[in-house]
Design a protein that fits this description.
heterotrimer; A mainly alpha (300); B mainly alpha (292); C alpha/beta (392); B: 292 residues; ABC transporter involved in vitamin B12 uptake, BtuC; 75% helix; C: 392 residues; 4-stranded mixed β-sheet
Chain lengths: 300, 292, 392
Amino acid sequence: MDFYFGLAQLVGVHTLLGLSAYIVLLTGQVSLAQAGFFAVGAYTAGMLTVLAGWHLVPALGVSALVSAATACAVGFPALRIKGLMLVVATLAFGEGVRLFFFNFDYQIAKGEVKVGPLGGEGFRQIRFFPEHGWSTLEVMLFIWCFVLLVMALLWWIDRSRYGAALRAVGEDELAAQAVGLNLTAIKVSAMTLGGGIAGIGGGLYAHYTTHIEHSSFNILVATFALAYPIVGGLQSVFGTVVAVIFVQAFLIEGLRDLGDWRNLLFGALIVLAMNLRPRGFLDARTLASLKRVFGGGPRA
Amino acid sequence: MLDILQAVSDGVLFGATYALIGIGFTLVFGVMHKLNLSYAAASVGSAYAGLLVLEVMAGAPAWLVFLCAFAAGGALGYAVYLTCFHFIPLRSPLATLMATVGMLLLIDEVIVHATNGMPQAYPAIFDDVMLRAGAFTLRGDLLLVFGVAVLCMIALMVLLYRTRLGLATRAVSQQSVAAQLCGIRVGQVNAMTFVITGLLGGIAGALIGASVGALSPLLTTPLTVKGLIVTVIGGLGSIPGAIVAGLLVGGFENVLQHFRGVTERDLYVMLLLFAFLVFRPDGLFATKGGRD
Amino acid sequence: MKKLALAVALAFAAGGALAQEKTIKIAGFGAKSGVVRSFGVNSEAAMLAAAEVINKQGGVKLADGSKAKIAVEFLDDRCNAEEGISVIRRIAGTDALVAIGPTCSNVAEPLFGILQKKVDNKGDSGLQFPVFTDVAIKVGLAKISEWAFRNVPNEMTMYNSVFYWLHQKYPDLKTVYGGVEEDFAHSRATWHLVMKDRAKASGFAVAGESKWLLADTNFATQVREMKKANADIVAISAHPFTTCGVLKEMQRQGVKPKLLVGLTSSSSLETLQGCAKQAQGMIIPSSFAPVNKEAKFAAEQTAKKKGAADLHSMAAWENMFILKQVMESEKIAGTRASVQADRRKIRDGLAKLNTTQGLLGVSKRDAEGEADKPYLFVQAKGNDWVVLHNPL
């Protein structure tokens, strides 16, 4: 059973990563910087619990703030560029963050051993969960509290005026501007919010793996942050969750028994999924029919 | 001083490989306005396919390996078009983007399974040629790579501006609906673009294999990143821009390494790139019109 | 209907027969995808081959005197920390008693982190499952958890011995130049923490160092620095792909050190497949070479399972035999109900070991769970690694 709880923890962490890209994608910005914000969150939370001895909850709060601030700082210059230029600029930023941590040493002595991030050697022994005797079930519930909180927030945003403005900007910037929407505020706030979500996800990730190093935040992670909302569909927050379950629970863990075939199928099935569901698993039509089924019969 | 000069020239020369990969990226982007992230992986994959010649015929000459890589590149290009672009509606650019990511992972994994992930020696050409001027040296094989990149550029320019196919390609890239109304088969033109960039990728992969001396799946991610960087710095869709940008990136990389060491090299490259894109979002040689 | 009944009956009969033959599951895990795939493939082959040999000899003796066969299941972790954690949780969820793996140090480190740090610490909810590592070699990992053990060569001892021997044999060689793949946990630690110190301790002067990254392809600047230093010995702490790249650049620039020393992990077929010509004469300490009857036998059996015998995969082979011995001496029950107790017994048994029998001789084990294995020096000659010197 612990295995499934552990898997659910991983799905939760990746859902946060995916949701951080989801909100940014809504405004039409394709950002490969999410892994960078994720890294900032991971290192911040890890340093606060290990070096400063904080409890994890305030540490996650701070890591969300730090990541959000970083994202906000990226959001302004990123306004100037779009399309492929933005993809590459955010990729450059994300890689820049990773390489910063590759060069980042900050160790203090704790007892006879030194702890803290040590450049390329990584940052080991972030053991808040086991040291406080939390079981895998408890950790899973803890992580999913945050996931559900973030999902509820995004779900609510989707139904608000602000959410409509986000999507309007994503559909057509010019038209959105013409009806009086403030592009700067909308795009930068989406980026900031995404950064904050990635920060929480990163903080949880560091405590999930107990050891982080720069290569845990490479381009592949950034690509997957984007892949989740795209594969899942941008119509609803649930799409991202479905996609994370598809990738982490099905493609990676579910197919494990296939041995060597698993790795080959991984890429092939992503290609297939995009061909069959170019607008994601949960596109508008699927959502509508789901609503009919679960919403108590046709209302319209 | 000589040290710095040497570092610059080493880097610029190695940048020729980036330029070669960048041309393919920029061509697909210029025509379809879409990103093919599997391009570098497909290029490396076709270079591997070239090695099949040595399996069948031990001791085959290097040019045969290159020819096989060239052909495999075209075939792989078409396969990528079919799997990632043909069936996905134009209105879902994100879906094609992810499909090419899936393709990148697939090609990587196929290579790994075929070779157990072990690096494979690649036949070299002009490997032992070193141009010398005192202590100053230039690698012969990289000069060849540079020469090929320039030749490819000329060939592409001729193709684009002197042939009917080129005319059709440019028409599709400017206004695909209008092109369709004029009777151009948009699908076919797009497929041809992929085959041509694939062929180019085959050459690029083989030459990179030859100049590195060995092939490894480790090459795909850095080459993808370099290809993207070169495309945007050169200006979207600009082929000469891609070549200049390739050389520039190679040069900057080596100079920063010379001054700041290898661990900080990429950090500064990335920060410079970010700043460059923010302050000059159209790249060095942007095409007129600035569509996105 | 009759057919169905027959099938059901047959199935029951088969199930019954299986139940009579007890099995003990040992799980293996490591990288079977990505650039390190060959490591996982070789380890799996070695484990399967060793299990077959043990089973042919009757299997493992249990507490009640009966014998059990060993079953091996190998899982792929893609050299990825998250997957490594999922894999070990999955293994712990089955009736496997112990796991052998992983391949990558960057998986081993987080993996050992989720294990319980100190045995019997009730406040520590870390996983209680013994792991006996065969490949991940970065120095000082087993001390992370008391449930983690390793049977990997001790690079500290080996490079100490290499440089000592080189100093004795070639007294006119004075300087060492280092080349290090800076962004990979193992290679980086080996140069900075091991090779550099050991060379100095043996009386060499370190003339400088060049750094590059795992996926680098252009080494012109680094080799130029190397050329300037003009050291007698060049020590390269890098994996085969960049080792080959650097060696080729050295040839291009005409850098000809009197001796080449390489990283333990490079003493595999990979290097020779990538650049046999340039790697000629490279000296690497290794904890395996087919030098005696047992070692040859192990290599042959592994080859039958389509794996290559090298210092990494043969550690997996040794681990299987060590585990068999531990299981017998600790008298595990081997029943479904005793799984957790048996795991604990295996852990305690491994912790108790002071020495183990390996293919090249006796290994010492320390309190941290690390091994000090016998080793010898191999050298690239033609398309093979040949034994250069046996220091023991």
